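Second attempt. The first submission of AP-1 complex subunit gamma-1 isoform X2 had a stray character pasted in from the spreadsheet, which I only caught after the job came back as garbage. Lesson logged: always re-copy from the clean sequence file. Corrected sequence (486 aa) follows.
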Amino acid sequence: MCELNPEIVAHFRRHVSTLVKTLKNLIMSGYSPEHDVSGISDPFLQIRVIRLLRILGRNDDEASDAMNDVLAQVATNTETSKNVGNAILYETVLAIMDIKSESGLRVLAVNILGRFLLNNDKNIRYIALNTLLKTVSADYQAVQRHRSTILDCLKDPDISIQRRAMELSFALVNSNNIRGMVKELLVFLNSVDPDLKSYITSNIFQVAEKHAPNKRWHIDIMMKVLTTAGNYVRDDTVPSLIHMVASSDSLQAYAVQQLFSAIQHDISQQSLVQVSAWCTGEYGELLFKDIDEEEPLNVTENEVVDILEGMLASNTLNQVSKQYALNALMKLTTRFTSSVDRIKTLINRFSNNMDMELQQRSVEYLTLFRSFDEMRVGLLERIPVMDTKSTTSTTIENGEILEVQREEQPVPEQKQSKPTESTTLLDLLGDTSSVGTPSTHTQAPNPVPVLQPAAPSTNGGDLLDLLGDLDMSTTTAGKCGALENN
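This time the job returned cleanly.
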């Protein structure tokens, strides 16, 4: 009645003292064969009374104070050897965590759940993990005391227990225990079901970003996850990892050498290949830099190009990974001056590729060599540190996995530039759809400013390829109309 109609809760609160006396008589009374179940007097009535006390004590200080003592008696006097006693204790724990109970009583409730985790019954262990997950925000420190037992549940063969233990483990990570917790979670990542690996990798990156003791440790954890489960890393995680390396000036050499060393042995992990290719193209010259306390990489320019060539020829890598590799090769033409001719040959192989994106990039890069080589060094210099964009991360609330959308910072509006001689040339060329430029319906997330030459170029087609997506429909229509009138 109280659950269906909250308005009558105030009426029943006057009878809290009577309910407390009834419950006390039940736990203190002797053997009653009519209502005894496994040595416990009328457990069904006890559970009903405790459940009603929980509803009546919710958000009420006076009612909660009146029932604190009797709930403590139930928690300490009920046997845990039988399922009947465990059912009463479970209902007692829910009541303690729901009412305005004392801190000591809450610790007692969490300790009961900790004992449940040691039970051989998988159902009881699952219930304990689920309840701890819902109450971890109420008494964080008390739950932390059972961290080792919770981590042991990760080794349970039952997938449901594994999942709840995993979620609870991530909820318990903080700046003080992150090293040990992430170490255990990485061990768990090696043996976990593939369906859970994407969730684990995303949350390891999330807690590492939030609680990492230092940047170098953060990079090491990133490397371990990428080499262990790189194919299960979410797509939106790759830009975050790239941003982390780009924003760590003092560790860029260490990061790029570690990443390149990893892909020397394995190029089957998609996310590892993408992050490594981007960093190799951006910071390729740092591969030859000596780092304190680290063995030199001892790699040559040709060996670096060989690895990227192997990526492009691989049958296991997807097209996105190959796009990263092709961009890295183009970047290296300004870092590895002795390998420019070889890189041009590699890029030229993709000018007729079946994949439209690879073909377009290859043709545009070759055009840059042929017609705008004097601008190549400036165009391919290091990219400044990017602003973090909106990303979706997973959080846990009351035992449920939720996706949280981080707010994206507003992008200032760009003023539209006035038509120049280059745009006039484009107007005269008419319809540009045959050139193979991207559709104007698809907007790039980060518009790149276009470098416009002072004088119009006679290479109209090449200029269009380099300028990419330009919406000239209005101006072109005006020109066509003028021609028809003439």
